[in-house]
Design a protein that fits this description.
Layout: H1 4-8, E1 15-16, H2 19-28, E2 35-39, E3 56-60, H3 63-72, E4 80-82, H4 91-94, E5 99-104, H5 110-119, E6 124-132, H6 133-140, H7 150-156, E7 159-167, E8 172-173, E9 180-187, H8 197-209, H9 215-218, H10 220-223, H11 242-257
Parallel strand pairs: 2-3, 2-5, 3-4, 5-6
Antiparallel strand pairs: 1-8, 6-9, 7-9
Helix pairs in contact: 8-11
Length: 258
């Protein structure tokens, strides 16, 4: 059976080869009967611990990986899909109830994966994933640091986020030039923020797009000539918690409606 490792080296892929790390990642996923979606199974280092589950589906856009896994697990070939997760319709999975996401995520699209999870936050109950360490830190970071950013706020609004462990570059083939990290997201009890959620997303993004400026300057594009009254206007984006961004959003909406 041909391995996709050699075939994919030219694509800059880095395969996890440490089975202890793989088992830790799988074990970190909540142990319930919800559907599991794996993104980017590659050589199947995580898949081997999940493939026997009836409610399991894997997505990969690399045909060598897909062919390899289908040949290795012919009785489970229907669970392995040659499809881009970012473009996939998740409605069929959501129709069966909440589902979980796991993966050694391709680092070049890991941020996009998280935004897709946000879009489906009502359906994604948990996520355990391997990220480039800097991205993992950014997602899990608390207010008041340079790493705290758009993803930190938006994801922490709806998920409890835990930085689980750092992963050495030496457990991959070929080794990447950066360290990696595994984090876990668990859906919190917030069904809806106490504000206009569409505006909240815009306020957070606008604030961090000009993070060197105070929030007052950053949100002018949203408030226009409206006079916004808020104690947070003279702070910078990284100083505001999720709750404070909610308050700021309400202040901006009130000003716009006057």
């Amino acid at each position: 059976m041909a391995s996709p490792v050699k075939a994919k080296k030219h694509l800059g892929q880095h395969f996890l080869v440490d089975l202890n790390i793989a088992q830790k990642i799988v074990n970190a996923l909540p142990q319930d009967d919800l559907t599991i979606l794996e993104i980017g199974p590659g050589t199947g280092v995580l898949t081997q611990y999940l493939i026997e589950k009836e409610n399991f589906t894997a997505f990969d856009i690399d045909i060598e990986s897909i062919d390899f896994l289908k040949e290795k697990y012919p009785q489970h070939a229907h669970k392995i899909h040659f499809q881009d997760f970012l473009a996939a319709d998740l409605t069929p999975f959501a129709s069966k109830g909440n589902f979980k996401v796991i993966g050694n995520f391709p680092y070049n699209i890991s941020t996009q994966i998280m935004f897709k999870v946000l879009e489906h936050r009502a359906d994604v109950s948990a996520l355990v994933g391997m990220f480039q360490k800097e991205v993992a830190v950014r997602i899990a970071e608390k207010p008041g640091t340079k790493a705290y950013g758009i993803l930190s706020v938006l994801l922490q609004a709806f998920y409890k986020i835990e930085y689980l462990f750092t992963v050495s570059e030496h457990v991959f083939n070929p080794p990447p030039k950066v360290k990696s990290a595994v984090i876990r997201l668990t859906r919190n009890t917030t069904d809806k923020l106490n504000c206009n959620e569409d505006l909240f997303f815009k306020v957070v993004k606008a604030s961090f797009n000009q993070r060197r400026k105070t929030v007052r300057n950053s949100v002018k594009v949203l408030s226009g000539n409206a006079v916004v009254e808020s104690i947070y206007l003279d702070k910078r984006a990284e100083q505001l918690s999720v709750a404070e961004f909610v308050e700021l959003t309400n202040s901006i909406e009130t000003a716009i409606k006057k």
